[in-house]
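Q: What changes when beta-D-glucopyranose is included in the input?
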Amino acid sequence: MKNLTRRQFAASVVAAAALGPAASARDAFAQTPNPASRPDQPEFPPDFIWGCATSAYQIEGAVKEDGRGLSIWDTFSHTPGKVFQGDTGDVADDSYHLYKEDVKLLRSLGATGYRFSISWPRVIPDGTGKPNEKGLAYYERLVDELLANNIAPYITLYHWDLPQALPGGWQSRDTAKALGDYAGFVAGRLSDRVKHFFTTNEFVCISDVGHRLGLFAPGLTLSAAEANQVRHHVVLGHGLAVQVIRANARGGTLVGLAENAVVYVPAIETREHVEAAHRATREGNAPFLTAVMEGKYLDGYLEGEGANAPKVAEGDMRIIGSPLDFVGINVYQPQYVRADGSAQGYSVESRPTSYPHMASPWLFIGPEAIYWAIRNVSEIWKPAALFITENGCSSDDVLTAEGRIEDTDRVMFLRNYVTHLQRAAAEGYPVKGYFLWSLMDNFEFPDGYGKRFGIHYVDFNTQKRTPKLSAEWYREAIRRNRAV
Ligand code: BGC
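A: The predicted holo structure follows.
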């Protein structure tokens, strides 16, 4: 159909229809090859991990149970005006009690991995000091349930729910040390059963969105200098966590992070634009992924921030640059870039107002972002392994009278991103797994329950989970180990 214009295609369908239904179907599709047997369709490696992702505050609920301490998200969500319709994570998906049911959902998809996060204040209620055995026991039960179902646990240690009790929060350098100690404690206790640990989820959301823009907990609007210091403490915390995990965990434990690096997509796939995307990737992620991968802040970043640049103590950059076993990238949207004659050598394209997005206005669609995320990061820093630690979308899901959710837009989104992921795998980039965000609808931070990202629909009154069409699609992709 590639060579037909839209009008020609419509005309051919009309002509076929004139022959009657049976004949039209036969004639119009007689030449259609069976995609399942298409020899040129690349597949993922046989041991590719297909999973789903969630995070503690977004699904667990049970915020006052078994000795859990308060997190900054409890405080923030209970502050009037901060979250859509005053929603909180108090109950969320009640996964603290329903985790076995949630593992069943994963199993029925055929998932081989589950990325979830640990609530720091559930395990160490004050952030430092005495651990709460009952809190840790919940994660032991969850891990055991996953393993009993042949699903590998992938643990994120910090997905934004900082213990409220930590003095100064991320503004204090001590919080970086506290993260390291907590991460080391958890890895020491769980690495007999868990092989992969992610230190942190999305640096920029922790630092800038929470401390400069004030849209996430703790809701601060600090000065540039203060916010840059927060950035530094967060990457330092990651580096310390890497080191303490390695010191405390069993041999063979693998450590990485989950980062929503800005994904620069060359507007045109030619050498000069691909190189522009590489340069933009390093510079556009300078405070975060670049610092972690290179153990230094780029001169351009420090010069650009001038007097507001972070204060860096002796030895910090070596800690921040601690070698990783893998890099996890959360991919949602593209940023198009092209080479130009400027001093910088490239420009980041602005988006026309007609650029399409999903239900969340920020979620611009660009399936090739997943390919370029892997290719850019691989070519620049050559990590041993990569994971797509999040990818998925919000959709205006409607439960039909028959109890179905026909989220064809989410299926379109996922199919296209996974197709581009398949390209990366086929070209030999070391991508080892894909975690779809999210297993089920959940507390979408400032959007509360107003935006649904799940492939299972959750009725928040009854906690009933219903597979959406996208869950059926994902099951089939997993079964065939390729985009379908
Ligand atoms: C976060 C998730 C969030 C998702 C959709 C990601 O950046 O890691 O916690 O639910 O985006 O907004």
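Observations recorded in class: The pocket of beta-D-glucopyranose is lined by residues 55, 58, 201-202, 260, 330, 390, 437, 444, 453 (CB under 6 Å).
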